[in-house]
Design brief:
Layout: H1 4-8, H2 17-40, H3 46-62, H4 67-86, H5 88-105, H6 111-130, H7 141-149, H8 152-162, H9 169-176, H10 192-197, H11 204-231, H12 242-254, H13 257-271, H14 290-296, H15 299-317, H16 322-349, H17 356-377, H18 379-386, H19 391-412, H20 417-427, H21 439-466, H22 471-486, H23 489-494, H24 496-504, H25 512-524, H26 535-541, E1 556-558, E2 565-567, E3 572-575, E4 578-581, E5 600-606, H27 609-612, H28 622-633, E6 640-645, H29 653-662, E7 671-676, H30 680-693, H31 701-710, H32 720-725, H33 729-746, E8 750-755, H34 765-778, E9 781-783, E10 799-801, E11 804-807, H35 809-825, H36 827-830
Parallel strand pairs: 5-6, 5-7, 7-8, 8-9
Antiparallel strand pairs: 1-2, 3-4, 10-11
Helix pairs in contact: 2-3, 2-11, 2-22, 3-4, 4-5, 4-9, 5-7, 7-16, 11-13, 11-21, 11-22, 12-19, 12-20, 15-16, 16-17, 17-19, 21-22, 21-24, 28-35, 29-33, 30-33, 33-34
Amino acid sequence: MNTDAQASGNPGAESPLLARVSGFALLALQLGLLGWAIQRFGIENDGFQQLAWLSFAGFAVHFWLPLRARLAFFVALSLSGFVLVLGPTNAAWIVGLGLGLIGLCHLPVPWSLRIGLLLTAAAGLSWLRIQPLLAPWSAAVWPIFSAVFMFRLIAYVYDLRHDKKPGTLLQGLAYFFLLPNPSFPLFPVVDYATFRKTYYAAPASEIYQRGVHWIVRGVVQLLLYRAVYYHATLEPGEVQGPFALLQYLVSNFLLYLRVSGQFHLIVGMLHLFGFHLPETNNNYALSSSFTDFWRRINIYWKDFMLKVFYYPAFFKLRKRGNKQALVGATLFVFAVTWFLHSYQWFWLRGSFPVTWQDGLFWGVLAGLVVHGTLREADPARRKKKQQREPLWRRVLSTAGTFLAICVLWSLWTSETPAAWLALFRAGLDWNGTPSVPAFSAWAPIAAVAAVFAGGVWAARAASRRFVPRFSALAGPFAAIVLLCALGTATAQARLGSAGAVLRTLGQSHLSDDDAARFERGYYEELIDMDRFNSPLWELYMNKPASWPVIHETPAGRSVRGWMKVELVPSVSLTYHGATLTTNSFAMRDREYTLAKPPGTFRAALLGSSHVMGSGVDDAHTLDALLEARLAAERPGGYENYEVLNFGVEGYTPPQQIDVLRDRALRFAPDVVIYVAHSIDGRQVRNHVALATRMGIEIPYAFLREPVKRAGLTVDDERGVGEKRLEPYAMEMLGNVYAELVRTARAGGAVPIWLLIPTPKEEVTEAVLDETAKRAARAGFVTITETAAAYAQLPLEDIRVAEWDYHPNARGHALLADAMYEALAARATEVFRAPQQRPQE
């Protein structure tokens, strides 16, 4: 622990009050602007934004406290952050469980017994992790509790065992309950000994300013990540030709910017409270060898592995010779890294994956690092290395290492080794689809980066020339000012295409490809989520294991062929936290008679999970609420009103033809209300591509013909067929709509096309217009006003859960009201007596 003099900013004496006030004012100004930029660009999530303001406000208090009170204040502030982000109940469970584990570490019993008790506790928690319904706490506790303890507890026990001067209880609490933790399930493995030794290990002013600098770097890296994620990434099925392959490889690796950006944010925030921790990542894209890459990327992980695993293994193997010890210890470290990767996944997601691509990635990387380490250990090469290497050779070695890492990274993130080989077969085919560099994607990103980097460079150069005393402050301060400027609507409007890119960076959402993965994963259960830096992975990480799809419950069952799944009649159960009941006709609805009672207006509601009512109780589904409203208002003067729910989770537009023809028309509905989404075209494309890939017969000629034109086969990899069918998606959708209209009118029902939003994203005007025009041309009575049903509320307020984008009871109520108003506005078309309705 260091002196108050050091902590106040001068290692020799207390700083004058004026200097402290001016230093505080500069820091407060930077943090205030940073807070605005974080809020303006929506960095990470709402929880982090609240935590950032809490930490900045806490810093303002912490700065003026005497040194002896600062650590206790940090612990209290950190615990407040857990409550703020996670809520008091979840925070209490995390703290309570954590204190129990920390207490086991300090029991006055032999070390072997302590380790045994910790392993027993870990086994018990592991069992609860795979049996989440038995745990008395929320599923939201697991990701953050895991981030706090899964690796940090190992480092803590190691230091307690080997450190001759163990830390205090307060230091232990500060180490585990770190302020940024509630917002980051992925957290750098902070070393306990380093954590204690670096506390105010330099003048406070330097530590604080370094923290601001790293927070800025974190924000910039996260914005660069979004630019790449939204605008430059490709799906494997989109790779056709070498330029597309290069774009895929580079953008896929650059997604790691999210991890490094988060780590800079985390460590930067800790600097604000005196923890002078080392850098987490050091220009890893500029590595000149694989050994250099291992040293530069995720430095905390490398140090953790060296300390806990490499050095003990090396000294045990040393009697066989230094070279053998080096090789053996390095291979051991990478084997443990592979295991701990799956161990981390287990605590965060509840499963323990062991995949070929993981093994190949860590095995190849281990071999390359061992080879590089042996080369570096050679005395002749070490002497040659001390000579100045020509610039051209350094550039080539850096570029070659970067490209090789990108290739290896693509193997790690591939779904299977076979899919990885298929990717390269398509990418190295010069005779395939012509491809050119994606300048349209990269140019605006490069323009934004150039404007930002140029501004920072100019500010630093001017400061060094005119005000040398503030040269260290100039870069971060200029970066903060530029962030704030680029976040304004005026700057974005004047920057053209670069400004358009900036506008997309203002909120965190799924990219188009991940949105397709989300949709595909929901409807086909085919999500590849093994990407720690993807918002889609983060979304599913919070999803409890007890959140099945409908055919995994007694209420649904899988069927062979085109329909894939169907509901089971006369079942009642709890589904996604709500009561779900099916009637004797296998509808998620109350009982109805097959024959329509006299004087009854009957509507058949077609749709997927939104219509079925996933995650809401029987009384709060769309059909139940609409039926009650119709009965109360009595449009058309009918004696009775029935809204029959034929929605089934996962059904796509082509499947609704079968539902209408084989099931709904048996009930003689007066109207058929087809509930559409803005993604209808994509759903048609995905379902047809999946059926082709699975060898399922497609029952409609108007869907078989585009498959033939696009050249789809059963041998296509996932994603390939979808991309090939993309040009035909809207054509297929129009034909599906036309068949729905023809079938409804043949059954004596008025066909109504009604668009509803999903609590995932706003419906864009272009998509809405194109989809609605297809419906109108097909002959539907089209209703689009309902697309704005959620307009008055944040989308987060109407979702069933953070990981489930279906509307909750409030969302269904808004939709039912909007549907009633839209139908009532078209009363002459909708609520007509049977004899007035045209027949075909």
